[in-house]
Amino acid sequence: MKLLERTPIPATYAEIRDYLAMTSGKTLIGLILCPILITLTMRLGTLPMVRATLASITPAKLDPIYHWYSIFLLQFLMLYVIPILCIKLGFKESLSAYGHQVRPLVRLWPLLLIFLAVMLPITYASSLKPSFSTYYPLYRGSLESWERFILFEAGFLVVFFTQEFFFRGFLIEVLKPKFGMNAILIASAMYGIAHYTKPLPEQLGAFFVGIVLGYIGDKARTFYFGIVIHYVIAVSMDAFLVVPVLLRR
Q1: I need a labelling partner for 121 at 20 to 30 A (CA). Which of 11, 86, 179, 189 fits?
Q2: Could you report the per-residue pLDDT of 25-41, keeping only the tens digit for each?
């Protein structure tokens, strides 16, 4: 024991003990669970991984849209179902405390229109760049028919529902007891990191827009504002490229 006393171990143990004493169990779960869920979602939810997994399950050649639907399902399970189980079974709290309510969205419609009036022209201008068309649309089958375009965009809604709940609802709320309003910055940083495969402007935009959406969602007590903004912008990013092609057919 005297040998251990000459090392940093006792001081480190004391620091960890004091930190745990000052940190709520909910925040600790968030700090440990959230990076794990984000990592698993990013690692398992890639097209090569999904293709390999589905190929091992069925020998049939599947339309790529099923690969995307599998990614949507994975995100739903990781970023929505598991946090919901934590809230209801672990924390025993109401979902409304995590922004899971639509009613506050009604009074935000003027801000919603302003947001879209600013973002849609920027999105359109971005769609004119060659680098944009090399990345979007994510599902190239959307260029083949209106049906495929609509089916993909309908399934795409699941992604924005789960991501907004996770990053603008669950993550911020579990971090607030320890970090206060800084929880918005932390959640936005994680959200930006989760966009590392996207074009650089989109990744940086995800961080800064995430801060704004996180603040609005926290004050209005709803993450549905972010769903509308996020989904409309995402659909427009595909539509600006896909619709002209489909209209020429």
Answers
A1: 189
A2: 788 888 889 889 999 99
- How many angstroms separate the CA atoms of 145 and 67, rounded? 18
Residues near 53 by beta carbon (within 8 Å), at least 6 away in sequence: 70
Residue at 240: amino acid letter: F
Output the pTM of the full model.
0.87
Q: Residue 25, Cβ neighbours under 10 Å: how many? A: 12
> SS3 letters for the chain?
CHHHHCCCHHHHHHHHHHHHHHCCHHHHHHHHHHHHHHHHHHHHCCHHHHHHHHHHHCCCCCCHHHHHHHHHHHHHHHHHHHHHHHHHHHHCCCHHHHCCCCHHHHHHHHHHHHHHHHHHHHHHHHHCCHHHHCCCCCCHHHHCCHHHHHHHHHHHHHHHHHHHHHHHHHHHHHHHHHHCCHHHHHHHHHHHHCCCCCCHHHHHHHHHHHHHHHHHHHHHCCCHHHHHHHHHHHHHHHHHHHHHHHHCC
- Interatomic CA distance for residues 217 and 224, integer angstroms: 8
Q: Which two tokens stand for residue 210?
A: 């995430």
Give residue 122's pLDDT band: very low, low, confident or very high (50, 70, 90): confident
